[in-house]
Design goal:
Number of strands of chain A: 5
Distance between the termini of chain A: 23 Å
Largest interface: A-B, 23 and 27 residues
Strand content of chain B: 25-35%
Largest sheet of chain A: 5 strands, mixed
Number of helices of chain A: 3
Radius of gyration of chain A: 12 Å
Structural class of chain B: alpha+beta
Helix content of chain B: 25-40%
Oligomer: heterodimer
Structural class of chain A: alpha/beta
Strand content of chain A: 25-35%
Radius of gyration of chain B: 15 Å
Helix content of chain A: 40-55%
Number of helices of chain B: 4
Chain lengths: ~100, ~150
């Protein structure tokens, strides 16, 4: 499950790609957790432009990243959300908890 | 309701089959000439139902998951996901947003998303016997589309 990390002076951007379903979610969570732990960003941006499919397992991935960033005292925003993923996030009301752009 | 076309796919409750089930549903639905958004709705809803069967119906073993796809009169697609697993003791509770008995990669939003992406959702379950989730969605007829 590919994730790509790029660091900026003010934080980091992690790009997620491929299909995020229950089958791949656990591995993606582990990769994301390691990436956040090694970069320790104050501001984390998750770029979903490469996500080709996402179901509610993707919500769990984002919520896990949110909790980790809250523990670090940092912030999380999610950008470049494809329409299908956006509709899943909207149906679940995730925008009340995470900044979706 | 009379089915115009029907297919049934039986597969093992391995998580790798979640993508297989999505592809099957999307391919079957292609005869309705759905829009890309409608295909995305179909794939999302079936993914949730099949994942529920894989995660919750057979927590300690592999079991059989049956996906029955039917094309009904009135341009409706029916997707039924059936398992012979542990069953759901309290369906109303299971359908409540954020309720989950699953592990960390489950969000408890599966039924909420199925309801949101489909026109109708019915859940039947008997503890020890299994669960059947039936979903229907009407696919809009498109002007000029071949039917």
């Amino acid at each position: 499950m590919p994730i790509t990390v790029s660091r900026q002076p003010e934080g980091a951007t992690i790009a997620l790609a491929g299909e995020i379903d229950h089958h791949g979610a656990r591995a993606m969570m582990a990769q994301l957790e390691d990436a956040i732990a090694s970069t320790l960003p104050l501001r984390l941006t998750l770029d979903l432009s490469g996500v080709t499919f996402m179901d509610s397992s993707g919500i769990a991935v984002l919520m896990r990243a949110l909790r980790q960033m809250q523990q670090l005292g940092g912030s999380l925003r999610v950008t470049a959300i494809p329409l299908q993923a956006r509709r899943v996030l909207d149906a679940a009301g995730v925008g009340r908890l995470i900044t979706l752009e | 309701m009379k089915a115009i076309d029907q297919t049934t796919i039986v597969f093992s409750s391995r998580s790798a089959n979640e993508g297989f089930a999505r592809a099957c549903a999307a391919c079957f639905a292609a005869q309705l000439d759905p829009t890309l958004d409608e295909v995305a709705d179909i794939k999302t809803a079936v993914s949730e139902a099949v994942t529920n069967a894989i995660v919750h119906a057979y927590p300690d073993r592999l079991g059989r998951v049956t996906l029955r796809l039917r094309l009904l009169e009135g341009n409706q697609l029916e997707m039924q996901v059936k398992d012979a697993g542990v069953g759901i003791p309290d369906i109303e509770q299971a359908r409540t947003p954020l309720f989950t008995t699953g592990s960390e990669e489950r969000s408890g939003m599966g039924f909420t998303i199925m309801e949101s992406f489909m026109d109708a959702l019915k859940v039947r379950s008997e503890p020890g016997k299994g669960t059947t989730v039936t979903m229907r969605k009407r696919i809009a007829r498109r002007a000029g589309g071949a039917r």
